[in-house]
Design a protein that fits this description.
Chains A, B: Its EC number is 5.1.1.1. Chains A, B: Substrate binds at residues 134, 291. Chains A, B: This is alanine racemase. Chains A, B: GO terms for molecular function: alanine racemase activity; pyridoxal phosphate binding. Chains A, B: Residues 226-345 form the Alanine racemase C-terminal domain. 2 copies of one chain form a homodimer. Chain A has 348 residues and is α/β, with parallel strands linked by helices. The first copy, chain A, folds into 2 domains: 11-207, Alanine racemase (TIM Barrel, Alpha-Beta Barrel); 227-345, Lyase, Ornithine Decarboxylase, Chain A, domain 1 (Beta Barrel). Helices cover 28% and strands 25% of the residues of chain A. Chain A is built from 11 helices and 19 strands. Chain A has helices spanning 11-22, 33-37, 41-51, 62-72, 90-95, 105-118, 139-144, 146-152, 169-178, 317-323, 329-335, and strands at 6-10, 27-31, 56-59, 78-81, 99-102, 124-127, 154-158, 186-187, 189-190, 204-207, 227-239, 244-245, 251-252, 257-262, 276-279, 282-289, 294-297, 307-311, 341-345. The first copy, chain A, has a 9-stranded parallel sheet with strand order 8-7-6-5-4-3-2-10-9. In chain A, strands 1, 11, 14, 15, 16, 17, 18 and 19 form an 8-stranded mixed sheet that branches. In chain A, strands 12-13 form a two-stranded antiparallel ribbon. In chain A, a hairpin with a 5-residue loop joins strand 12 (244-245) and strand 13. Chain A is elongated. At the A-B interface, helix 2, strand 11, strand 12 and helix 11 of A face helix 2, strand 10, strand 11 and helix 11 of B.
Chain lengths: 348, 348
C-alpha cells in the first residue's frame, strides 16, 4: 500500500450535498471553477450529470469551460464563464454555446457585434456591481445598454454577495440595487446566501463550497464531508525540554515531548502552521511546517497507526478556518500539489 | 496574446546561479524536489545537465526520483531521495541506482538485506539528527550500525542546519555533533549554509532556493531572478470613501480610490493578502485576495499597461517574505496551479 499523502474524494457525498441544497432553493447550479475547488472538475461534473439533475456549471475562464464542455456536451448543460472573456476567446466560446458572464461594456459590445456577424443572437449573462467591488457592470451602464442586451438576450443578471455569511445590512442594499432591474431571470446567491432569507436566493443559486462540504460559519446545515486528506507518520522521536524543533528555532519544547514527522508540507499545498492533525483518535498540535513535512506533538498519543487525517470529518474546513483566521479551508484543496495522490470513491 | 496569468522561468539564470554558487563552494548539487520548487523539475534538470557540471540532484520521494532519472539517465548523474524510502519502494530505487538518504535503523537494515539478496553492495547516504529535530538518524544509532554501513558503503553523511540564515550558536553545535563522525564524505549545507563560515559547507552543498533566485535574508549575493509571475488587470473601477472592497467588508476605502482587479487568486496558489504588486512602474498595494482575483489600490498609478508583476525582479521573494512574516516565497512557486501558464525562456 502506498504511503503517499492522499486526497480521497467521495463523489456520492457531492451529489448528496447538491440534492440537499436543491431541496432548499428554487434552482441551483454547481460552481466547478479552479478544478472544482481542487476536487477534480471532470469527475465532479460527470458525477453530477449522471446522478443528479444539475445542468448549470460555473467556471472562471475559457480553459475551464472547455474542460467542462468536453464532459458535458452530450447532456443539456449550460456552462457559464464568470470571469467574462477576452476578445480573442470569443470564437471558442461561441462555437460551444458557452455563456459568458459579462462585466463591462466592451464585452457586451464585442458579443453584440459577433451576433451580428453570425446573424444569430445568443444570450449572455451579466454580472452587476452591487457592493462587492470586484467584477460587475455599473448598473447605470446596464440600463444604458438595455436595448442592445434585449436584442442579444439576457440569460441571467447576477450579483455576488459581499457578506453572505453574515446578516450585514449590505446584503439588503445589494439586493435593493439589483432589484432595480426587473423582467430578467436572476442569480443572486452563492453557497452562503442560501442561508439568508429567501429573497436573497431567488432564481439560480451558484453552489460552490457547500457542494464540497465546506461551511465555514456557525449555522448548522447537514452537509456531508467530501474530501479526506491523509498523510503518514514517517518518523517519531523524543525531544527534550528546551530543545528546538524546525527552522529558525521556530518551536521550543517546554517539557520533554514526543514528535511525529508527517510526509506532507507547504510544498504540497498544506501551508497550515497553526492547528491540529487527527491521528489515533486524538488531535495532535502542529508545531512545525516545512516544504515537505509537518511536525506534530504526539506526546500524549498512543501511536498504533501511522495514518494522519489533515482534512476530513475530524479536521473540518471550519476548524482550519478557526485555527487560522486568514486561511480559507478551500485554499488547501485548490492548492494540493501533484505529489498528493487523488483517490475517488463513490460510497455513502 | 493570451492574458492568462503566466509564470515565466528563465533557465539560463538557473544555470547562472548554479555556476555562481559553485564558484564559492567545494562541490554542489541541485535540490529539485517539489517539481523544482515549482519551476519544473524536468526542464531544470535537463538544462543543468546540458549547460553546467551539475550532476547531483536531490528530491524527496520515489516519484520525483523516477522523473529525474528519466531525464538524466544518459548522464553520470546521482539522484538522492532525501525522504528515505518505504519497504515497497526498494526495488524501484535499486534498479535505477538511485541513492536513498536513510534516516532510521529500519531503512538501513532493509537496504542491507537487499544488498545481501542481490549479492551486491550499493552505497546509501545517511541523514544525521543534529538539531533540526526532523528526519535524522540518532548519532548513537549511526555508530552502533557503523559496521553494517561500512559494508554497504556510505555515500554521504548529511545534516540539515536549523538556523542556517543566522549566526546562531546552534550552527556550531550541529557541526560539532556531525563532526563526531570521521572518515566519511559529508553534505552539511543547503543554500543558506554556504553564506556561513567555510566549515559549514565542506563537502557537497545542496542548493535549492538560491538556484531559483530566492535569498530571503539580508546578506547580499548576486543571484539572478529566475521566475517572473504576471497576471492582467481585467477591470478598473472607482470606489468612494467609506465603501467596502471584497468579502466580509475586508477593506474600507479611507478616501475615494481607484481599484484594479487582477486575474489571479489564492486558488492559483497566490495566497498573498499583504503586500504589493508592481504595475506601470509603481507598487500597488494588495487590498483583497479571493479564489480567482487580487484587488489592487491603483489610485495614484497612471495605467497604460494591463500587465502586473506578482513575483520577479520588482516583487522579490525577500519582499514577499518581509510583507508576510509567515509566508515563504517558495510557497508561491511550489503551489502555482494549473490555470497559470508556464513559459520557459533561455536568455541572459
Amino acid at each position: 500500500m502506498s504511503k503517499s499523502a492522499t486526497f480521497q474524494i467521495n463523489l456520492q457525498n457531492i451529489a448528496y450535498n447538491y440534492n440537499y441544497i436543491k431541496s432548499n432553493v428554487n434552482h441551483c447550479g454547481a460552481v466547478v471553477k479552479c478544478n472544482a475547488y481542487g476536487f477534480g472538475a471532470t469527475k465532479v461534473v460527470e458525477h453530477l450529470i449522471n446522478n443528479t439533475d444539475c445542468r448549470s456549471f460555473f467556471v472562471n475562464d475559457i480553459n475551464e469551460a472547455i474542460e467542462i464542455f468536453n464532459v458535458s456536451k452530450e447532456s443539456d448543460s449550460k456552462i457559464y464563464i464568470m470571469g467574462g472573456f477576452f476578445d480573442y476567446e470569443i470564437e471558442e466560446i461561441w462555437s460551444r454555446n458557452i455563456i459568458p458572464v459579462c462585466f463591462n461594456k466592451e464585452q457586451i459590445m464585442l458579443w453584440s457585434e459577433h451576433c451580428k456577424k453570425c446573424n444569430k443572437n445568443k444570450p449572455i449573462s451579466i454580472q452587476i456591481e452591487t457592493g462587492l467591488n470586484r467584477l460587475g457592470l455599473d448598473i447605470n451602464d446596464f440600463f444604458k445598454m438595455k436595448s442592445i442586451l434585449d436584442s442579444i438576450g439576457i440569460d441571467f443578471v447576477m450579483h455576488h454577495l459581499a457578506c453572505g455569511y453574515e446578516e450585514y445590512s449590505t446584503n439588503n442594499s445589494q439586493l435593493e440595487k439589483i432589484n432595480q432591474i426587473q423582467g430578467c431571470k436572476k442569480s443572486l446567491s452563492s453557497s452562503c446566501g442560501i442561508l439568508l432569507e429567501e429573497k436573497h436566493h431567488e432564481g439560480l443559486s451558484r453552489i460552490g463550497r457547500f457542494l464540497y462540504g465546506s461551511n465555514e460559519q456557525s449555522k448548522n446545515i447537514p452537509l456531508k464531508s467530501v474530501g479526506k486528506l491523509t498523510a503518514f507518520i514517517i518518523s517519531v522521536k523524543n525531544v527534550l525540554k528546551g530543545e528546538y524543533v524546525g527552522y529558525s528555532q521556530g518551536y521550543q519544547a517546554q517539557k520533554d515531548i514526543k514528535i511525529a514527522i508527517v510526509n506532507i508540507g507547504y510544498g504540497d499545498g498544506y501551508a497550515i502552521r497553526k492547528g491540529f492533525a487527527f491521528t489515533n483518535g486524538s488531535y495532535a498540535p502542529i508545531i512545525s511546517c516545512s516544504m515537505d513535512y509537518l511536525t506534530l506533538d504526539v506526546t500524549s498519543i498512543n501511536l498504533n497507526d501511522d495514518k494522519v487525517e489533515l482534512l476530513g470529518e475530524n479536521i473540518t474546513f471550519e476548524k482550519i478556518a478557526n485555527w487560522n483566521s486568514k486561511i480559507k479551508g478551500m485554499e488547501i484543496t485548490c492548492n494540493l500539489g501533484s505529489r498528493v495522490k487523488r483517490e475517488y470513491i463513490n460510497i455513502n
